[in-house]
Amino acid sequence: MVVLAVTWMAKAGHETEVAALFEKLTEQSRKEPGCAMYQAHRHKTEPRRFFIYELYKDDAALEAHRTAPHFLQFAKKDLPRIADRVEGNLFEPLG
Fold this sequence. Notes:
The chain has 95 residues and is α+β, with helices and mostly antiparallel strands. It contains three helices and four strands; from the N terminus they run E-H-E-E-H-H-E. Strands 2-3-1-4 form a four-stranded antiparallel sheet. The longest helix has 15 residues.
Protein backbone atom coordinates (compact mmCIF):
# COMPACT_ATOMS: atom_id res chain seq x y z
CA MET A 1 0.00 0.00 0.00
CA VAL A 2 1.05 3.56 -0.72
CA VAL A 3 -0.42 6.66 0.92
CA LEU A 4 -0.28 10.11 -0.60
CA ALA A 5 -1.20 13.04 1.65
CA VAL A 6 -1.61 16.36 -0.17
CA THR A 7 -2.52 19.85 1.00
CA TRP A 8 -3.88 22.51 -1.34
CA MET A 9 -4.71 26.15 -0.57
CA ALA A 10 -7.47 27.76 -2.64
CA LYS A 11 -6.76 31.22 -3.94
CA ALA A 12 -8.94 33.82 -2.24
CA GLY A 13 -12.48 33.73 -3.56
CA HIS A 14 -12.10 30.35 -5.28
CA GLU A 15 -12.94 28.06 -2.36
CA THR A 16 -16.21 26.83 -3.85
CA GLU A 17 -14.61 26.09 -7.23
CA VAL A 18 -11.79 24.14 -5.58
CA ALA A 19 -14.29 22.11 -3.55
CA ALA A 20 -16.23 21.32 -6.74
CA LEU A 21 -13.07 20.15 -8.52
CA PHE A 22 -12.18 17.90 -5.59
CA GLU A 23 -15.67 16.40 -5.71
CA LYS A 24 -15.15 15.53 -9.40
CA LEU A 25 -11.63 14.25 -8.79
CA THR A 26 -12.83 12.14 -5.85
CA GLU A 27 -15.65 10.56 -7.86
CA GLN A 28 -13.37 9.60 -10.75
CA SER A 29 -10.37 8.55 -8.64
CA ARG A 30 -12.45 6.14 -6.56
CA LYS A 31 -13.29 4.26 -9.78
CA GLU A 32 -9.64 3.47 -10.46
CA PRO A 33 -8.89 -0.25 -9.90
CA GLY A 34 -5.79 0.44 -7.78
CA CYS A 35 -7.35 3.15 -5.61
CA ALA A 36 -8.29 1.81 -2.17
CA MET A 37 -9.30 5.22 -0.78
CA TYR A 38 -9.54 8.80 -1.98
CA GLN A 39 -10.91 11.32 0.49
CA ALA A 40 -10.79 15.10 0.17
CA HIS A 41 -11.18 17.17 3.34
CA ARG A 42 -11.76 20.85 4.01
CA HIS A 43 -10.21 22.51 7.05
CA LYS A 44 -12.80 23.33 9.73
CA THR A 45 -11.57 26.88 10.44
CA GLU A 46 -9.57 27.71 7.28
CA PRO A 47 -12.02 27.24 4.39
CA ARG A 48 -9.30 27.81 1.78
CA ARG A 49 -7.24 24.82 3.02
CA PHE A 50 -7.91 21.34 1.59
CA PHE A 51 -6.32 18.02 2.54
CA ILE A 52 -6.51 14.93 0.37
CA TYR A 53 -5.81 11.42 1.70
CA GLU A 54 -5.16 8.86 -1.01
CA LEU A 55 -4.46 5.14 -0.61
CA TYR A 56 -3.27 2.99 -3.52
CA LYS A 57 -2.53 -0.72 -3.67
CA ASP A 58 1.04 -0.10 -4.94
CA ASP A 59 3.32 2.34 -6.75
CA ALA A 60 1.98 1.24 -10.14
CA ALA A 61 -1.56 2.14 -9.06
CA LEU A 62 -0.39 5.59 -7.94
CA GLU A 63 1.37 6.08 -11.27
CA ALA A 64 -1.81 5.01 -13.10
CA HIS A 65 -3.69 7.66 -11.11
CA ARG A 66 -1.16 10.32 -12.06
CA THR A 67 -1.63 9.56 -15.76
CA ALA A 68 -5.42 9.17 -15.70
CA PRO A 69 -7.34 11.68 -17.86
CA HIS A 70 -9.36 13.02 -14.91
CA PHE A 71 -6.18 13.66 -12.90
CA LEU A 72 -4.49 15.43 -15.82
CA GLN A 73 -7.56 17.63 -16.33
CA PHE A 74 -8.55 18.46 -12.76
CA ALA A 75 -5.29 18.27 -10.77
CA LYS A 76 -2.77 19.34 -13.40
CA LYS A 77 -4.75 21.79 -15.52
CA ASP A 78 -7.74 23.20 -13.60
CA LEU A 79 -6.63 23.24 -9.94
CA PRO A 80 -3.35 25.16 -10.35
CA ARG A 81 -5.28 28.10 -11.80
CA ILE A 82 -7.32 28.52 -8.62
CA ALA A 83 -5.24 26.84 -5.89
CA ASP A 84 -1.66 26.23 -4.82
CA ARG A 85 -0.29 22.84 -3.85
CA VAL A 86 1.21 23.44 -0.42
CA GLU A 87 2.51 20.00 0.45
CA GLY A 88 2.56 16.43 -0.79
CA ASN A 89 4.00 13.45 1.05
CA LEU A 90 4.22 9.73 0.25
CA PHE A 91 3.95 7.19 3.03
CA GLU A 92 3.93 3.41 3.30
CA PRO A 93 2.49 1.44 6.19
CA LEU A 94 4.69 -0.10 8.83
CA GLY A 95 4.45 -3.83 9.37
